[in-house]
Records
---
Amino acid sequence: MSSEGLVRLPILHSVAEFASAAAALGLDLPLDAADAPDVSALAEPIFVYGRQAANRFCIHPMEGWDGTPDGRPTELTARRWERFGRSGAGLIWGGEAVAVRHGGRANPHQLVLRTDTAPDLEAILQRLLKAYQEATGSDGRPVVGLQLTHSGRYCRPSAWDRPEPCIAANHPILDARMGLPSDTAPVSDGWIRSLIEDTARAAALAHRIGFDFVDLKHCHGYFGHELLGALHRPGGYGGCWENRTRYLRELVQAVRSSAPGLGLAVRFSAFDTVPFMPDPYRSEPGKPGPGIPVPHCHCVPYEYGFGVDRDAPTDIDLSEPVRFMELLGQLGVGAANITGGSPYYNPHIQRPALYPPSDGYAPPEDPLIGVARHMHVTRALKAVGAGPLVVGTAYTYLQDFLPNVAAAAVAQGWTDFVGLGRMVLSYPGMPLDVLEGRLDRKRICRTFSDCTTAPRNGLPSGCYPLDENYKRSPEARLLAERKSSARSSR
Ligand SMILES: Cc1cc2nc3c(=O)[nH]c(=O)nc-3n(C[C@H](O)[C@H](O)[C@H](O)COP(=O)(O)O)c2cc1C
């Protein structure tokens, strides 16, 4: 699809125009069509882990690639967490991905939770809580969790451009893309057991320093997610359903015994597709073509993904994700954050955007279709009624119409919480503004993807177009230079 054919949300004048554009794309989206939507459902408090969340906004984990080499937060990290608190959102999901061991870091600036870094994380949690109280004028607090991670295939703990993958299973397309020999050995079952121990240790620290819950991450192509689709993995953690979910079950058990009383949550990629690439026939120098699925006939039946139809792997199959929700309920996991795909191999699925990141491709579909896909999957998984509260993802692309869709989504029971990712980087005050019937259009994220392009080039993430702190930084100049040299060298 050429970007000319896409709906340009910033130039729509009214909710009615948005409704017509969505209908023209054949989309069924919940929508409060009033210019001033009824936000009462968004403002409804709800109990999570025995604590009251003041409203139905959730701040997704948003990593900044700005920790110290030994895994501690910097002032930039603290600033981001303060802004998460200032949002006034009732639920803060993780702050960001925090590695449970050095080798599991996705980049050398990712935070690591160890005994000696725990006080630093406690300090930024306290700053977040204080910022929440200042912004809301209350003495309450949001419900806050920490996302615990191991980046698996995407580990780069030592240098941003030096992969040190720990694969859960071989993947013919991704192994080839990463230059891994096809006989590269997946990590052993013993390695997985030691990761569970490290995660349980980190969870106990998170509990001690004041987090309400931990997210046992299973999303975005990282370790836990890759394991869910590891049909070819031999041993105790691959192959059948029982084995592929053993990691989750053992994690839950280990965290329960290391941190009794700590809330448990899981963010998982509930749907996926094959890896995508820019269409070489429609790419020009400096301008990647629209994304197309990489050739994958040789991989069908597709036994390398989760939430995909094995016979037609560009289609979704929710039968296992539904079972996964049921399992989360049986395990007493209190909340599930529903996401999809991976930023590494199909970013348009994971975070619908008008402009691609530097390692991406032009949109293969109208990004609104991607938003609707997320919302329908979330609605279907919430309808399972398995028990966990549900957080929806990919609302940022809705831009000016986010309040209208979000209000209706919660009111009509499509989701319990509306998650905000990229939007919180440009416009941290959005939740409180929406609840008070305001919107600052100048702060709305327009999905330029610089927050992804910067870290892909070894720079900290942030909203370079709209947040003055990044816009005026020396890194902004470096980012512009790297983008321009990438354009001319293509
Ligand atoms: C800069 C950046 C950092 C992110 N960091 C994380 C992270 O640490 N953990 C995670 O689960 N997702 C992470 N995500 C994904 C977001 O949480 C979210 O799923 C995604 O941006 C889609 O939501 P949105 O449309 O509201 O932006 C990140 C995304 C971006 C753009």
---
Amino acid sequence: MRSLADELSDLIDRFGPVPFDQVMELALYDPDRGFFTTTGAAGRRGDFLTSAEVGPLFGAVIARALDTWWRELGSPDPFVVVDAGAGTGALARAVLAAKPQCVGALTYLLVERSAARRGQQARGLPIVPAAFAFPPTAVDGDGFAVTVDAGTGPRAVSMAELPAAPFAGVVIANELLDNLPFRIVERARDGWKEVRVGHGAAGFTEILTECPPELTAVADAVAPQVIPGSRLPLQLAAADWLAAALERLTAGRLVIVDYAATSPELAARGRGWLRTYRAHERGTDPLLDLGEQDITADLAVDQLARVRPPTSRTTQAELLRTFGIDELVAEGRTTWHERAAIGDLGAIRGRSRVREAEALLDPAGLGSFAVLQWVMR
Ligand SMILES: C[S@@+](CC[C@H](N)C(=O)[O-])C[C@H]1O[C@@H](n2cnc3c(N)ncnc32)[C@H](O)[C@@H]1O
């Protein structure tokens, strides 16, 4: 099979220097060789560790949050929860294992672009066909819709894209938007340039090209006063995704959890916001080893706010404390101490909860992640 480097080389030959979002698209999502379609495995043996993959504690706290948000909506049945960029389903499994009060009403949609990852979601989840996800009126007229009786949840549905029909409920996107392909611009003395990828003497290289007016407009708006040489990701796909998700939500909330900063903060960091990861370590140059490493950047909160300003911004640690992580950890610690001598599964789970909490609340790591919420009223 041809390599992704060969594919990129062909694109450059045909179309000239390629925008960075197209390089990311190829490297992360090529259907046969992309990082998320092949090697990119989340989890303890994988390339990165998200909060959902640290262990079940994150999902247990999210389950409590879902109960609160469900009651705020008037305890609807079905209660639609969309897990956007659901990966292999770790968050879904942990939420259901925590047995939230809303479970009998729960329609849990795992929206995941990668077919390989969707294929791993069935393990331990009550996956049903999409026709069982929505009331018949909301399903496009294919005749397969069924009436879902109250109290028959949980129903998990695996899908490739956000549902087309509007719905009330909760959308959660944990570490999704930082992986959506972005363009890159650089400030020159005479205005913005777009950083594209072309051929160099020793492989692929960055090339500064004329900046299209639509990119200049965004860059000027979000970072009007940066010094020459500053670089920015322009996260147009993330903004489009946000607009699409908000358009579908008729009531409830959208919750985005990610590493985040503002555009001026990113510009002040030089090129440090563009990162690659492989096997829990920082990877190499993003133009090398295409398809073998994750490519990501901090989410520019101000660029998302141009779509619609979020209702609130907190940290992950604050969110988890609001919904009782300390209580769950105290329970875990007690079980651990009571059962340490026996050393059974309960004791191990109790101890694991304490360790997981340290990672999830770490002010220098996951605990500092931004939680952006858009609440529909
Ligand atoms: C960093 S992983 C996060 C997985 C999971 N949310 C977690 O916390 O472990 C990002 C996931 O989003 C998926 N993804 C990327 N773009 C997507 C899109 N437009 N819609 C749905 N999933 C997407 C990727 O395939 C990948 O599985």
